[in-house]
Specification:
Layout lengths: L6 E5 L7 H12 L7 E5 L4 H12 L13 H13 L1 H9 L2 H17 L1
Parallel strand pairs: 1-2
Amino acid sequence: IARSEQLLILAGPELPAQHWCAMECYTWFAVGGRIEDVEVAIVGADAENIGAVVSAFDAFHVMYSLSDGDTAAQRQLMAATELAGIAEFNATLRELMPRVKEAADRLGSVGSAS
């Protein structure tokens, strides 16, 4: 992620709830990534799915993210999140909302044109 010039997020409704995925999004910003260089593509273009993706990002809080159990990797992930700071982590993920809404709007206009 640190060497990437752009970040493409293939977003489904479960993405924000996956701790590892949320950490990758956070890391993008932590290493200097800019919101202008983020592209969000919503996977599954039906209206229900689009709404679920927007809602999932809007309601994001790291305490609701799913873990893979009590593994060494999960403990390291939690330690990294705590080191970043829960409030900072949550605020950083919420910075993606404008991009998520743009992706939803693009799909909405495509759906209404058909």
